[in-house]
Amino acid sequence: MTPKVPAGRMNGMDPELEAFLPFVPQGDLSDPLASRRAYAEVASARPLPDLSDLEVEDRTVPAASDTAASTAPGVPVRLYRPRRTRGALVWMHGGGWAMGDVDTEHPWAARIALDADLVVISVGYRLAPEAPFPAAMDDVYTVLNWAAENAAELGIDPDRIAVGGHSAGANLAAAVSLRARDEQGPPIRFQLLNEPSLDDRQESWSARNFTDTPWATRKLLTQAWQLYLGAVPATVYAAPARATDLSGLPPAYIATAEFDPSRDEQIDYALRLLQAGVSVELHQWPGTFHGSQAVLSAEVSQRQVAELTGALRRAMAA
Q1: Of these four, 68, 153, 168, 179, which has the most CB atoms within 10 Å of its CB?
Q2: Is the pTM of this model over 0.85?
Q3: Domain locations along the chain
Q4: Is 260 annotated as catalytic?
């Protein structure tokens, strides 16, 4: 039997990141409201880039009449418009589908807009457990359609719209890519999946062995999936790893962290996309853990952010 990775020092952890481990909060969603407050507090301490070259605007996208989102007043979004743009990115925050909003994602969305020269549409999708699947995915699909239909007013090319996100947000980006393909929805030029949560079954080697890694423990992931799915069985739009046909999907950039329980499902998804004829750039970051790129002082985190925005620039310039 392969020994599980101990809760203490993990062999190969990046030294700069290891120094921050005592300050990494314990991931726990047993009280979603308290977790949201703590998540927002941590997010508020993140440094902001210089916003002088960005136009930032809050809007509400009307709810679609043909989805579960029609019961909501609309989907809040925050638009980031740089002075020059290569296209648009519909961006989804992380937080286990139960935490986060456009405010907590403000530093990251602004940084991506500036570094990638993209109009970023940050989506404030509904959160679980109050609004379990498919609410968040419906909200994202509503915003994608809105962006394509209002491309001229937004100053974007409807053929240069990408989707992306981190963790649960990357799950939504992968799911909306599947849905847009299946429903002949708006063309998606590129999908950026940063440490995506893709498989509710948690049966991979990393899921079974990285049970007590920083932040994203097996307990936290189990809680997140339970809150997101509620009483509904997982479908391919909830857990994209369950999809058997990955052909015809947009090109992808998939980034994984070495000490992440979801690492192996992410690598497997990348390989299956390649085998389905989809162009994929896969970057496995050694010595990192789930969400560690938030430690911006670490050299490896700086390279991660540069690679993410570089992948977007290349995709939009092609």
Answers
A1: 168
A2: yes
A3: 15-317
A4: yes
